[in-house]
Task: inverse folding
């Protein structure tokens, strides 16, 4: 007898591949929308993890939640322009005198 019983049957592990979306932009394979960040991507998914009932929000729902589509075509969770505008300038640092052209001294 020479039975080679080397059946390495790997069974039981679900063939679910979760692509690690870290850092940069990502695209949803379910709805096909592009997202500028993982947080934006995560924000458009709703439902429970187990049982897996994760669904995508519609565009209207995303807009309702404060998300918006940037000019590049990526969904973002918030606009940054508001943050930059809140930076108040400390007055007094620049001693700029209104240099008016002093020409023509009138008698
Ligand atoms: Zn989606």
Result:
């Amino acid at each position: 007898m020479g039975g080679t019983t080397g059946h390495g049957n790997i069974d039981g592990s679900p063939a679910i591949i979760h692509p690690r979306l870290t850092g940069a932009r990502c695209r949803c394979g379910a709805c096909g929308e592009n997202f500028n960040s993982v947080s934006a991507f995560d924000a458009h998914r709703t439902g429970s993890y187990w049982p897996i009932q994760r669904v995508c929000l519609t565009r209207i729902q995303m807009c309702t939640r404060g998300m918006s589509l940037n000019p590049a075509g990526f969904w973002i969770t918030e606009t940054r322009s508001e943050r930059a505008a809140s930076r108040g300038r400390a007055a007094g640092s620049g001693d700029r005198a209104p240099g008016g052209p002093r020409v023509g001294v009138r008698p």
Notes: Residues 28, 30-31, 33, 44, 56 surround zinc ion (CB under 6 Å).
